């Protein structure tokens, strides 16, 4: 799939520091909980923070699937990638886009960081420091 430079420029321009108010957007506590509730969403955010730029959806799918795949499992890596692709495109990416953590361009197959992602980095780091049982308590 060719990447159209005009579409890529549009995605990059929308997320340049001077393109919108660069004020940190505070997410409500409930939104932070909902985002952190999913391992896949956390992994997507980590990938975007590490990359510091747009990623192709297929690259993102591969990274998330590789992080999840257990070599001893019966399910093949291809099956895991297909499941990850479906869940990212239908559920996780739209939710993260709704909270302005990323921009998901379905036509180009690109995912780019959005205005709230830098402010969310500290919440993601705090989540890594908490034990899993504490994370589960957030749902109540």
Give the topology.
Blueprint: H1 5-14, H2 29-36, H3 39-51, E1 55-56, H4 57-68, H5 77-98, E2 102-105, E3 110-113, H6 117-129, H7 132-137
Antiparallel strand pairs: 1-3, 2-3
Can you walk me through this structure?
This protein is mainly alpha-helical. It has one domain: Arc Repressor Mutant, subunit A, CATH 1.10.10. Helix content is 60%, strand content 7%. It has helices spanning 5-14, 29-36, 39-51, 57-68, 77-98, 117-129, 132-137, and strands at 55-56, 102-105, 110-113. A 3-stranded antiparallel β-sheet has the order 1-3-2. Helix 3 (39-51) packs across helix 4 and helix 4 (57-68) packs across helix 5 (77-98). The longest helix is centred in the middle third of the chain and has 22 residues, at 77-98.
How big a fraction of the residues is strand? 5-15%
Strand order of the largest sheet: 1-3-2
**What's the structural domain tally?**
1
Net shape? globular
Count helical runs.
Answer: 7
Measured distance between first and last alpha carbons: 43 Å
> At CATH's second level, what is the architecture?
Orthogonal Bundle
Protein name: DUF7344 domain-containing protein
Organism: Natronorubrum daqingense
Domain DUF7344: 34-111
């Amino acid at each position: 799939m060719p990447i159209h430079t005009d579409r890529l420029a549009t995605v990059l321009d929308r997320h340049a520091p001077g393109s919108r108010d660069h004020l940190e957007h505070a997410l409500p506590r409930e939104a932070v909980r909902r985002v952190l509730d999913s391992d896949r969403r956390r992994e997507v955010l980590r990938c975007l923070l590490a990359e510091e730029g747009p990623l192709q959806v297929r690259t993102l799918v591969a990274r998330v699937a590789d992080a999840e795949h257990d070599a001893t499992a019966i399910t093949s890596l291809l099956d895991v990638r297909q499941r990850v692709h479906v869940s990212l495109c239908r559920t996780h990416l739209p939710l993260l886009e709704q909270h302005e953590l990323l921009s998901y361009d379905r036509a180009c197959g690109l995912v780019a960081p959005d205005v709230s992602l830098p402010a969310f980095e500290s919440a993601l780091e705090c989540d890594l420091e908490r034990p899993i049982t504490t994370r589960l308590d957030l749902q109540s």
